[in-house]
# Entry
Amino acid sequence: MNSPKKRLSQAMLFIVLFGIVSLFSDMTHEGASSIRGAYFSLLGASAGTIGFISGFGELVGYSMRYLFGRLTDKSKRYWPMTIIGYILDVLAVPALALVGEQGWVYACLLLVVQRMGKAIKKPAKDTIMSFAASQEGVGKSFGIQEVLDQIGAFLGPVLLYAVMLLKTEGTVFEVYSTCFAVLAIPGAITIILLLITRMKFPNPEHFEPEPKEYVPFKLKKEFLLYIAGISFFAFGFIDYSVIIMHVSRTYAGLASGISETGSLVTSGTLPLLYAGAMLVDAVAALVFGFMYDKKGIRSLVISTLISAPFAILIFAFNSVPAVLLGIALWGVGMGAQESILKAAVTSLVPKASRATGYGIFECSFGVFWFLGSWLLGVLYDISIPAMITVSMVAQLATVPLYLKADKLIR
# Structure
């Protein structure tokens, strides 16, 4: 009787340790995300270049996950793939401090390297997490990991906000370079904790019992419906860079005294809006992660209906309170999807092929996120009402697909 209890507690310890690794990793690259666009512009990159390289980086980072997922399943080298990916991911960020004042080309290359690191690590990382999660409840487990992720995503921008406050001397370029250099600290902690976790749990696949017979991976109807659903979600979910661009254009200027409510939003507080969204993301991830263990894919329907109106609140109302509520709903959508989407893959794909399943999921999600971000960004300049309509229709189109997939599973 003691052995199963011990194994379960070890599985949860692994989940928490791996979550803390993700916390410091997210401090590194989400901290960078909060200032990267401004830094690239300072280095001499045009707005078009920044938009293209950001989209291209995401496309590479997601589309290559299928290839690395297949490679991980064939080799079963879960830890080496995870460690190599993490090293590329977190070291490419502080390296931005070394590119020089006109080094936007090198900065763009480092962004692609960072995204490639994520492509290498994600299928392997999610797969070894799923082994432990299968013992503790997949929704709860991925929810806990997402909470720790988002704590890091909150602390990263706050850390850089503090660095900017403290570094009162030097040029703007030197301030930004210092910010990226400081991110080497959480980056180094990430690698150290990852290696400690690897030493303590060299074979995380042992958490999940081997199936009694080999179950080959097939593209079952419920999995295809699920992939179609997440693709619609990714297509319609407006990227935060578009949101923060709109907020900075529309509201940051109000801080000069034109509006009392506008004083809540200034260029200096913009990073804190993202930090706040990450906190909402963390809470939503935990709540909907627990809900998934009870309701399955139907919990995605609930989260989608709650978060879908965010585009109306942010882009249709000239009101700071509406924007703040909209950003909070955006955080709900991100948190719920991040935890539940990974949990659902664990439930739908057999152990032997799970990295491939994660690769397909991540690849589809990323391609449609890129296409949607591109279209919605174009629509923003042409017609904001059209952008809002496309966003909401695409998100709500996921509901019947999720319900159909849930019905087939049950």
Observations:
- The chain has 17 helices and no strands.
- The two ends are 31 Å apart (CA to CA).
